[in-house]
Predict the structure.
Amino acid sequence: MLQGHQTWVFDSKPVISGCAAVGGPFESNSALADDFDRLNEDLWLGQDSFEKAEKKLMEQACEIAIKKAGTKKEDVQFFLSGDLINQITSSSFTARTLGVPYLGIYGACSSSMEGLALASLLVDSKFAKNALAATSSHNAACEKQYRYPTEYGAQKPPTAQWTVTGSGAALVSQEGEGPRVVCATIGRVVDMGLSDPFNMGGAMAPAAVETITAHIRDMRLELSYYDLIATGDLGRVGHEIAVELLTKHGISVPKDKFTDCGILLYKEDQPVFSGGSGCACAAVTTYGHLVNRMKKGELKKVLIIATGALLSPMSYQQKESIPCVAHAVSLEM
Amino acid sequence: MLQGHQTWVFDSKPVISGCAAVGGPFESNSALADDFDRLNEDLWLGQDSFEKAEKKLMEQACEIAIKKAGTKKEDVQFFLSGDLINQITSSSFTARTLGVPYLGIYGACSSSMEGLALASLLVDSKFAKNALAATSSHNAACEKQYRYPTEYGAQKPPTAQWTVTGSGAALVSQEGEGPRVVCATIGRVVDMGLSDPFNMGGAMAPAAVETITAHIRDMRLELSYYDLIATGDLGRVGHEIAVELLTKHGISVPKDKFTDCGILLYKEDQPVFSGGSGCACAAVTTYGHLVNRMKKGELKKVLIIATGALLSPMSYQQKESIPCVAHAVSLEM
């Protein structure tokens, strides 16, 4: 049910009965490589376009998540998915492969938690027994759509981020073993007037802060309640801004427990500028690394805040600043 | 709760407490002109791009829908919206204007019923008191994105359709006066191998048929149960294919009660080829004309099946056929 202004509390605590993280060649050398279910050596995944390669990543993640849950796709009632490609074709084409009733979503890099929140809502309110939430991104497909074709070799400032090649999927179920989804806070669109496509972390930080603030207000708790709080795609630059803003709002930030998926994912010597980003960033980190740590008993209560820059190349062509949104999901083992 | 494989039955029958249809200059001459809440004489709506004009249409529709419900935006918990522009910027920018927690969706022209279904689910399961669902399309913004810039004057075959300039919004509430949402059937992606962007109706007809078939199976009823059954964007060509396919599947089609929003909306002498289409097509027809007829007592039970071609210009550049999806919502007065 609704608690406070914008938080859904799931009384039945739906379970993530199976989840999967898959990645590309760059992710094979990442800090969290061991937490992936599958790593692909070929950036093309044997396909003739990067977009089709991205679809293939999502198909892999969905297949593995369903398998790990010990079920089959015929028992999945709904598939909720979104990605960064125009018309979210990775999601739609995967929905065609799966043949499961499909709800397309779009929240840019916040899509992972938007999908997980909606899937949990469907299961909690008995509108589904099993709902599959997925998202994906592909470095080469995104770079050419949102910035410059990679071949241009355009230089990037240190605030830029590296789009993750990968896909994450989670099967949310009424029954099963795994982390449970406690609640979700749906964010408002926040726009602080930033328009630099090479500083998405900076643009998205205020949206993350807005949603975190709403979450602790609606749930009447402090951030220290959690063993780990991870934003989605802020990178180092955005993360620092988020810490500053939260502190300014009078919110006590447990710095040793507050991190970002875009910082966690890659090694320090990988050339990712400020950190990782892309729809897959929060998804692979959550459904690989964080869920694994929860299962090992290292983490009990985790809050993930995926942040999305709802920009289009159009927004800066049209001299518009970038509207951003963040959705938070709380998991418990 | 879930009934059958893919239908959500809303026990509380959430009410459409306020809804609105707005249009552009071409819609001012349409067959349903009198059913619009607002018609704009200027295709640009005073903006400097067609994309911003589309956002303006959506802002108008949302504002009017909230006003007609006799409430204010502070009482709306969630805004669910999608459109055809890359990164659904019309929706995201409207979400910024509204300042209401936002869930972006993408179902191409099926977005209207995807949003209405999800908003009804939120309200029925007590995760929201009021949820606003909206969608929009703009003829000039869509034509240049999906086909050829209008200035090229490219000739079109008779199977082509006319993208509606407009926006429709509905406020779904726990309390209020208006048509009630009885149930929704979420569709699977269907792809019959068609790849002609000038015959979307033909590509989408099988998806409409798939969802109608699922709906009557899950709800254990016949199509004659309804006073009117309206598909969203099939136009004349797609509509005929849908009738044929349903008949072939052994489903009795009450032809006098089975129509399409893309046929209803425009006059026969308007140059719309096979009929209207675009996210706004089913939205303005439902939230204007159909709801008005329900309120007058002319229609009691209505089934709307919005159909979306989840194509991208990429799908045919990449020699892919077009995956399609349809979602059905049943209304009752």
Notes: The longest strand of chain A covers residues 15-23. The mean pLDDT of chain A is 94.
